[in-house]
Amino acid sequence: MANDDGAVLAHASAPGHGPPSPGRASLPALAATVLDAVGHTPLVRLRHLAPEGGAQVLVKLEGANPTGSYKDRMARAIIEGARRRGELAPGRRVVEFTGGSTGSSLAFVCAITGHPLSLVTSDAFSPEKLRTMRAFGADLTVVPSDGGLITPDLFVRMRAEVDRIVADEDAFWTDQFHNADALTGYAELGREILAQAPAVDVFCAAVGTAGMLAGVADVLHVAGPTRVVALEPASSPVLTTGVAGPHRVEGTATGIVPPLLRPGTHDDARAVDEDAARVLARRLAREEGVFVGTSAALNIAGALELALEAGPGRTVVTVAADTGLKYLAGDLFS
Fold this sequence. Notes:
By secondary structure, the chain is an alpha/beta fold. The protein contains nine helices and eleven strands. The protein has helices spanning about 70-85, 100-115, 125-135, 150-170, 180-195, 210-225, 240, 275-290, 295-310, and strands at about 10, 45, 55-60, 95, 115-120, 140-145, 170-175, 200-205, 225-235, 270, 315-320. The strands form two sheets. It has a seven-stranded mixed sheet with strand order 1-2-3-11-8-9-10, with helices on both faces. Strands 6-5-4-7 form a four-stranded parallel sheet, with helices on both faces. Helix 6 (about 210-225) links the parallel strand 8 (about 200-205) and strand 9. Helix 1 crosses helix 5 and helix 8 (about 275-290) crosses helix 9 (about 295-310). The longest helix has 18 residues, at about 150-170. The protein is globular, with a radius of gyration of 19 Å. It starts with 7 loop residues before the first strand and ends in a 14-residue tail after the last strand. About 50% of the residues are buried.
């Protein structure tokens, strides 16, 4: 429904989101643990930046998750899945290499479930993310980057540190690039979108592990004909040209075609200009009140292009992966 300034907010029809009682707001039920607070995030319509004569653009605000990122969904599903199958015994150490948000989310889940956590990361990623990992109690190994750039070689060196920790500590590697439990966590995101959106003609998102795009696409494809577009920074266009390169869009474009991006998951891929997305991040905050980081701005930049192509009467949906609060120490908003 529209509020006083014309913004539109759709509420999730998920557990705890039943129809409101007379005189009472519709709110999630009391959470038994903070893990139950993952999900049920708002979907908003862009009112000022959507192209005239184009499709409406809806953005899922995943910054409303407990650590401010959609990776909370993945981390919960991976840890719960491993524990359920007996692969992760109580008290066993967990390890992963991460650009930031996965690490923060795993640290959050491991803090609740009682697993010590080792994270391999880099100075290429925002200091806010590294501090968040430490705040939840994770042990960090910080691999130096090449001048702050995210390069394919950086992930190779981070992975080598993971192998060392697995061997030395008998740690459980969550293996986010191959772990299908991530799809379970992100399928719920897809179901929320279907419950909130009037229709989904196009869904687009940038890929890192591709778990979110794949998990949402599985749900959308079952529900009806939705065009799914994988996005990537034009500075590292592996999906569109096969060429990897350095970039600064955290959480995306690791230099490979991610294994979770299976054939049939997406209909096509599109490269989006990184500098334009960074400009858009500032405009989103000032003109829409949508406060997001670089990957979310890249997603929305792609959605705006696709909305112009789709035309009126259509709906394009994308995801704001996290919140701009994770990027204040850098130059994104300066």
